[in-house]
Amino acid sequence: MFMKTAFFSLLALTAAVSVPQTDYDVIVVGGGPAGLSALSGVSRVRRTALLFDNQKYRNAPTREMHDVIGNDGTPPAVFRGLAREQISKYDTAHFKNVTVESIVPLDGDFSSFAVTDDTGEKYTARKIVLGTGLHDLLPPTPGLREAFGKGIFWCPWCDGYEHRDQPFGIVATLDNVLGAVLEIHTLNSDIIAFTNGTRNPEYEAKATAKSQDWEKQLKAWNVTIDNRMISSFQRIQDGAKHRDDKEDKQYDKFLIHFTEGKPVERNAFLVDYLTNQTSTLPYQMGLEMVDGKIKVASSMRTNETGVFGIGDANSDGATNVPHAMFSGKRAAVYIHVEMSREESKSKISKREGEISRRELEEEANNAIGDNLDREWERAQIQGSFQG
Ligand SMILES: Cc1cc2nc3c(=O)[nH]c(=O)nc-3n(C[C@H](O)[C@H](O)[C@H](O)COP(=O)(O)OP(=O)(O)OC[C@H]3O[C@@H](n4cnc5c(N)ncnc54)[C@H](O)[C@@H]3O)c2cc1C
Ligand SMILES: *[C@@H]1O[C@H](CO)[C@@H](O)[C@H](O)[C@H]1NC(C)=O
Ligand SMILES: *[C@@H]1O[C@H](CO)[C@@H](O)[C@H](O)[C@H]1NC(C)=O
Ligand SMILES: *[C@@H]1O[C@H](CO)[C@@H](O)[C@H](O)[C@H]1NC(C)=O
Ligand SMILES: *[C@@H]1O[C@H](CO)[C@@H](O)[C@H](O)[C@H]1NC(C)=O
Ligand SMILES: *[C@@H]1O[C@H](CO)[C@@H](O)[C@H](O)[C@H]1NC(C)=O
């Protein structure tokens, strides 16, 4: 019995290149808008797929999601729930609410992977999509985390409009204040920048390196600077209760306290902190990273064949829901065509030396009809306060 199986698989190997036999065509890690969009894309062409979601969503703290057309003001959980419900009608689509612990590439003519979850269960798939997201690295300042996404926010497009024309604060190092002002000044005019001790020669030099006339510009926008060290944020009014939905206004109110002197009252704050990968998988898998993001080409391919990076976690500099959906959809298209190309190759070609995986990727790119990689590289901008 064993001999027979071994004999036939040897025959298959010598006769033609073979498509790996796996549990699923695609495994998607991440149930945010990026992963759900990738799952939708592969499901619509009947690729079998399993999506893992351990329920750590970046926008979990926010009241409502904005700037997602057709869903302006929808709570993120409602949005994801509707997506799951709609995708569930495709019987090739599957979901698991568990954490993926490891992903290891397997040998073969074409890419395939062994995936293990935190219950020890194992799965195999031909392609991997990482839509594992970022999380915000907030300092432990009392009152900050509790108010994040609820009056204290990082993205003008997400939460700015509901706090327009209100006494406003920017919390950032001195060199990042002007960038924030240029994004928010159409919404707020009474702005104080809280620079938390960074108004000093080092940061003044950084600000000047970014923009010679930063000080003049801040004056022109009526921005004053308070350089005291911040000790806490105290909520004195909750915009979830004090809101005018007809006018799209939320009236949060805070006292910002300092290590010395009197606190200052502000309705809302734009803050600027770093982010990090939500999952350790990109590091564990040894993927090429750039500034803490998974390096991807315009096809959303990482530097490991068969692995795609989408959404906030990838390197293309945009971190918002429309980008997450775009990148997930784009990966789905490349994945489907790449697998189809592998399948047609296995149908027609005899084994003749090495098969170049890069060549196949290139062919899939050409079949789809565009190769934007050069422009993509140029467009990879990094900056703070990106929507
Ligand atoms: C407070 C706040 C408000 C925001 N508001 C808006 C807004 O109004 N409009 C907008 O466009 N954008 C908004 N954003 C940005 C938006 O949240 C992100 O751009 C978006 O969530 C990115 O989607 P994603 O799918 O890449 O990642 P996420 O939504 O963060 O999803 C990551 C997924 O990966 C899963 N995951 C990670 N690791 C594993 C693992 N090992 N195993 C299994 N699952 C795993 C997580 O559980 C989760 O399902 C906001 C962000 C914040 C912080
Ligand atoms: C998995 O999580 C989703 C989203 O939170 C939820 O709707 C669903 O009921 C969960 N499924 C299981 C089997 O727990
Ligand atoms: C203020 O600066 C200190 C010292 O650099 C830092 O530890 C703290 O997290 C900063 N506070 C805020 C609210 O950014
Ligand atoms: C300019 O800023 C000051 C101090 O923050 C504020 O009192 C004043 O209302 C602002 N002016 C306008 C036109 O918003
Ligand atoms: C970012 O995440 C990686 C992987 O979990 C970790 O090794 C690293 O220390 C984190 N960096 C910061 C600044 O938190
Ligand atoms: C991807 O890039 C990383 C970092 O440069 C490198 O360590 C790794 O070997 C590369 N992987 C492949 C498959 O080339």
Tell me about this structure.
GO terms for molecular function: oxidoreductase activity. This is FAD/NAD(P)-binding domain-containing protein. With 387 residues, this protein is an alpha/beta fold. 32% of the residues lie in helices and 22% in strands. The chain contains twelve helices and 21 strands. It has helices spanning 2-15, 33-43, 76-87, 144-147, 156-159, 174-184, 201-210, 214-220, 281-284, 321-348, 357-368, 373-379; strands at residues 24-29, 49-52, 93-96, 100-105, 113-117, 122-130, 134-136, 152-153, 168-171, 191-194, 223-226, 230-237, 243-244, 249-250, 253-258, 264-266, 268-271, 275-277, 289-290, 293-294, 307-309. The strands form six sheets. Strands 1, 2, 3, 4, 5, 6 and 21 form a seven-stranded mixed β-sheet that branches. A five-stranded parallel β-sheet has the order 8-17-9-10-11. It has a three-stranded antiparallel β-sheet with strand order 12-15-16, with no helix packed on it. The longest helix is centred in the C-terminal third of the chain and has 28 residues, at 321-348. The protein is elongated, with a radius of gyration of 25 Å. Residues 1-14 and 381-387 have low confidence and may be disordered.
Mean model confidence by pLDDT: 91
Helix share bin: 25-40%
Tell me the number of helical segments per DSSP (H or I, 4 or more residues long).
12
Distance between the termini: 60 Å
Family: Belongs to the class-II pyridine nucleotide-disulfide oxidoreductase family.
InterPro entries: FAD/NAD-bd_sf (IPR036188), FAD/NAD-binding_dom (IPR023753), Ferredoxin-NADP_redctase_2 (IPR050097)
GO molecular function: oxidoreductase activity
Organism: Penicillium cinerascens
